[in-house]
Amino acid sequence: MGLLDGKVAIITGAGGGLGEAYAKLFAKEGASVVVNDLGGPRDGSGSDKGAAQKVVDDIIAAGGKAVANADDVSTMQGGENILKAALDNFGQIDILVCNAGILRDKSFANTSEQDWDLVVKVHLKGTYCCTMPVWKWMKDNGKPGVIIMTSSTSGLYGNFGQSNYGAAKAGIYGFMRVLSIEGRKYGIRVMGLAPGAFTRMTADLPGRQGQEPDPMSLPENVAPGVLFMASDLAADHTGKVLGVSSRGVREIKMVQTEGYNPGRPYTAQDVAEHASQVFFAETKERTAASA
């Protein structure tokens, strides 16, 4: 018995890297998988419709069930076509993993409007375009399901040179939080994912250029954490972000201090005088690696 027996999953950006690892593990655990990938270089400047099919061929050769889809996640028509691929081939949808993404990393002053628009379109709008048709199908058919949205430590903590990417990933966090509240009424679980792995998306981040990947940091060692999120093992969890890497799994939360609460009108000088109550104690700032 697999953890996903009888389930149908859509995984976007599954022609390689993390998405490919998710797709292969989900299929091994019994899911029928729609492998979506537009293909092409990581800056989103082209396409290769064979990327998704190669993953599908591997899944089928291993005894699994899968179908390829090469629609653009950043359009509503693309999102609807991806859902249609699931319904036409497998008759339902139970799991959506929004994983597709591109990078156009530059320091903020060097970014162009196109760099901003395209990254936000693929990540944030792409998550919307794929989620909306799946959400409506689950809601209208009374079919509980799971939607996993890929955020990033670059959006949750910040990372130099990734203003466009970080903004999109932080937006996905907010989107996930709202839908997790709305989804409770329909039995739809919505979770956020901040993965960490060595892929073509992260191979040239600061500190990684020219390095051989640590075998433990490969995508297949991250996929089990995502399988947990998608399976009934996580049935009691929604609205949460998990940081998932080869080192393990941890929840990432937004927290606040007890704050300065004078119970009367206050001045800016009052706030300054009570700064130790307003701010958290200073700690060594972490360097967030994009995923």
TrEMBL record:
Belongs to the short-chain dehydrogenases/reductases (SDR) family. SUPFAM superfamilies: NAD(P)-binding Rossmann-fold domains. This is NAD(P)-dependent dehydrogenase (Short-subunit alcohol dehydrogenase family). It comes from Phenylobacterium koreense. InterPro entries: KR_dom, NAD(P)-bd_dom_sf, Peroxisomal_Beta-Oxidation, Sc_DH/Rdtase_CS, SDR_fam. The keyword Oxidoreductase applies. The keyword Oxidoreductase applies. The lineage of its organism: Bacteria, Pseudomonadati, Pseudomonadota, Alphaproteobacteria, Caulobacterales. Pfam families: adh_short. CDD domains: hydroxyacyl-CoA-like_DH_SDR_c-like. Keywords: Oxidoreductase. PANTHER family: DEHYDROGENASES, SHORT CHAIN, SCP2 DOMAIN-CONTAINING PROTEIN. Residues 7-204 form the Ketoreductase domain.
